[in-house]
Specification:
- By secondary structure, the chain is an alpha+beta fold.
- It folds into two domains: about 1-160, no CATH class; about 165-420, no CATH class.
- The chain contains 14 helices and nine strands.
- The protein has a six-stranded mixed sheet with strand order 1-8-9-4-6-2.
- The protein is flat, with a radius of gyration of 30 Å.
- The protein starts with a helix and ends in a 16-residue tail after the last helix.
- It comes from Planococcus citreus.
- It holds the Pfam family DUF2254.
- This is Putative membrane protein.
- Keywords: Coiled coil, Membrane, Transmembrane, Transmembrane helix.
């Protein structure tokens, strides 16, 4: 059931379709109210709420045209924002706007308003009514609600196109994933150096190509307990698999038919529901686009890099390597290939170092991000952070920084060394001293 809900949540047309269906029901409901109820309770209804059929046709015709125009304008605005997200930020960030619930609710409200007024206009016939109707007043109320929604939508768009808002959303996505893994590890995950399953080994292969988007750990564990299985997940979330690629290695003590495909979602694109690597990658891509010659906005990149440093510090508290999920009796049930902190550091910074090595501020922000990660992480990960610093300095070999630039970067390097209680590395050892 959760998998079906997840798949439906990914479909963008669902929300506008629901609003449109409700509008059809509302229009039919007030058609019968006008036909069967109004005349019976006429004396209790204020005259201002009622109109004759000719006036109702005029008003509803005008409202239907106006709402259709607003719907068209809203759709055009959405397309403009999508284009801006793709060109200014990153194609991977489109989903942040596309899956914004308010955007599609606004479009659904306008479609619903248009459908209600159009259908009500179709029902307005002199042959059906010998009295005034109330459907027009309801249509006017809906039109005012659409107008208010449109004003709020403009405010929402103006707020969300700001890069700081996008960065905050990306950071919250990454932090949410870190918190979910941390909570999961505290509950029933543990690090196991040995994995000694019993039973007959059986491979479960992928049914289609795509990225692993979601794994239902809890349901998979319950299924393993129910059927007395031990399941080894062979690919991490975010990995691309082909059809017939082995997904699970299952150890079972009795030969029986099992189905594990319902516990995994494979789609055509990566998502940030559980994919921590992709969540950080989106922030990295926005930073890379900011320091590109076409955009030339290094200050935005610097802010993102420093935020990434804080996330890495928080991420370092997660257990890395192969993670085992146990049942209530502390028996190993599911084994998952989690990332290593060293590998994650490299994937996060290697592109930033390559494309930002000629900008003093970007280099300084990378070192500051490493310092922030050091201050928030455990000492066991300091060696990996130190190696990342050395990787950065290797890219700076022969960099033509001037005296004040070198002094500024050296101050950042000293702060990193102090955070680790180590001897600082001299930047001059990795550069050509043009001012000597």
């Amino acid at each position: 059931m959760k998998k079906v809900f997840y798949n439906w949540r990914e479909k963008l047309w669902v929300t506008p379709a629901i609003y449109s269906f409700l509008a059809v029901l509302l229009s039919i409901a007030f058609f019968y109210v006008d036909l069967l109820v109004i005349q019976q309770y006429r004396e209790f209804i204020p005259d201002i709420l009622l109109t004759n059929v000719q006036l109702a046709q005029t008003i509803m015709g005008a409202l239907a045209g106006a709402l259709l125009t607003m719907t068209t304008f809203t759709f055009s605005t959405i397309l403009v924002v999508l284009t801006m997200y793709s060109s200014q930020f990153s194609p991977r960030t489109l989903k942040n706007f596309v899956h914004d619930r308010l955007t599609w609710r606004v479009l659904g409200v306008f479609l619903g308003g248009f459908i209600y007024n159009t259908l009500s206009l179709m029902f307005m016939r002199d042959a059906l009514y010998t009295h005034d109707v109330i459907s027009t007043f309801v249509g006017i109320v809906i039109a005012f609600f659409c107008l208010s929604t449109f004003a709020y939508f403009i405010h929402h768009i103006a707020t969300n196109v700001q890069v700081e808002k996008l960065i905050e959303e990306l950071e919250q996505d990454a932090e949410r994933i870190i918190d979910s893994y941390s909570e999961k590890q505290q509950q029933d995950m543990e690090i196991e150096s040995e994995w000694n399953p019993d039973g007959f080994a059986k491979m479960i292969v992928a049914e289609n190509d795509g990225y692993i988007q979601f794994l239902y750990f809890d349901k998979l564990t319950e299924y393993a307990v129910e059927h007395n299985l031990e399941v080894e997940i062979l690919h991490g979330i975010g990995s691309y698999v082909h059809e017939e690629t082995a997904l699970f290695r299952v150890y079972q003590r009795e030969q029986e038919e099992i189905n594990l495909h319902r516990f995994i979602t494979i789609g055509t694109e990566r998502t940030t529901d559980q994919d921590l690597d992709f969540a950080i990658q989106k922030m990295v891509e926005v930073a890379l686009r900011a320091i590109s010659p076409g955009i030339n906005d290094p200050n935005t990149a610097n802010g993102i890099i420093i935020r990434i440093g804080r996330l890495l510090g928080k991420l370092s508290h997660l257990e890395t390597g192969a993670i085992t999920i146990t049942d209530e009796e502390q028996k190993d049930r599911v084994r998952y290939p989690f990332f290593t902190f060293e590998h994650f550091l490299y994937l996060t910074f290697h592109q930033l170092i390559h494309y930002g090595k000629e900008d003093v501020s970007v280099v300084a922000s990378i070192v500051e991000a490493l310092t922030n990660a050091t201050q928030l992480s455990e000492s066991a990960h300091h060696e990996a952070i130190w190696e990342t610093q050395l990787h950065l300095l290797e890219h700076l070999e022969g960099a033509p920084f001037k005296r004040l630039d070198r002094r500024y970067i050296q101050g950042k390097l000293d702060a990193l060394a102090q955070a680790m209680d180590r001897r600082p590395i001299l930047l001059s050892n990795y550069q050509v001293d043009q001012d000597a």
